[in-house]
Amino acid sequence: MKAIVSVSVATLHSKPDYESSVETQALMGYPVEVLQYGERWHRVRTIDGYEAYINSTNIAMPAEQWNEATKYIVTDFYTRLFSTPHSDSLPVCDLVAGNILSAHSSFSPSATHIPIVLPDGRQGYAPSTSIVKMSDWLNHCEPTAFNFLFTAQQFMGIPYSWGGASTKSVDCSGLLYMSALLNGVILPRNASAQANVGAQLNLSADKLKAGDFLFFGNENIPHVGIYLGNDEYLHSQGRVHVSSLNPERSDYVSHNHLLCATRPYDDQNILIAPTLCEALCLKSIGNKE
Fold it and tell me: Do residues 172 and 224 lie in contact, with contact meaning Cβ atoms separated by under 8 Å?
């Protein structure tokens, strides 16, 4: 059975308790398949295939009003849903980039705040400058190497957290995952699976290009980054920042051993990944557009 994440960022755990390890995160408005119901925790499968436990308060069976309404996506990294159409009113909840919302009534095109209903039925007003109609956003998404890199660089300084996959915090593979998601496509969630996307490069023969994926480790792949050019790469390790592949530079990270690299783009320089629309199965969550 499908349920919908009803908080801005839901953290999924390996066991049905908060003390267990974090597996990943899921964003508001995204469907999860409920595999096993519990009193306080449900085992679910996310759109990227992860199976883990989510607290029952973080998902909802969406109300008909949410299902039937026009969908919007949050494009600002951070914003809030307000209790009245004024940004100085009390918040209903926080929102982050990639959250999917439903408009619950008509509004003027010049409205500064759009009336929103959340998957669990809560209502409020989102700043009109922070959200875009989902259908329009999907139609304008161009997951090129340039756009992917530009999005990834907007995460500069955001803290690392294990399992993080939102604009609040990201782990190394979460940085790539979120940079793709905010361009309308879905990458695999972990680094070892991301290494299978696109063409494998010969590190001794192929010249790296901006946007190539770099994988670090010995036999396994515990870390991933994005090549920027000039021997520099962007990655989340402590925080999202730039390091160098050149051992002569002060920002070289000695324990990051470059194991392999891939070029995850097609001949038109588009990221090779399923579209967000396909992954979300939008029709199954009631989007009529």
Answer: yes
The strand order across the sheet containing 223-229 reads: 199-200, 258-263, 213-216, 223-229, 232-237, 239-244
Distance in angstroms (rounded) separating the CA atoms of residues 118 and 125: 11
Domain residue ranges of the chain, discontinuous segments joined by +: 2-60, 64-138, 145-263
CA–CA dist 40, 273 (Å, integer): 34
Task: Give catalytic residues, as residue numbers.
Answer: 172, 223, 235
pLDDT tens track for 113-129:
999 999 999 999 999 99
Q: Domain 64-138 adopts which CATH fold? A: SH3 type barrels. (2.30.30)
Three-state secondary-structure class, residue 183: coil
- Convert the pLDDT of each residue in 44-93 to its tens digit: 999 999 999 999 999 999 867 677 789 999 999 999 999 999 999 999 99
Please give the Cα distance from 173 to 151 (Å, whole number): 14
Answer yes or no: are the C-beta atoms of 100 and 71 closer than 8 Å: yes
Are 64-138 and 145-263 the same fold in CATH?
Answer: no
Contact, 112 vs 128, CB < 8 A?
A: yes
What's at 33, amino acid-wise? Answer: E
Please determine, for residue 288, whether its predicted confidence score (pLDDT) is greater than 60.
Answer: no
Average pLDDT over residues 228-249: 97
Considering just the CA atoms, what is the radius of gyration of the chain in Å? 20
User: What CATH code is assigned to 145-263?
Assistant: 3.90.1720.10
Are 4 and 26 in contact, with CB atoms under 8 Å apart? no
Superfamily, domain 2-60:
SH3 Domains (2.30.30.40)
Span 229-241, mean pLDDT? 97
Q: What percent of the chain has pLDDT over 90?
A: 88
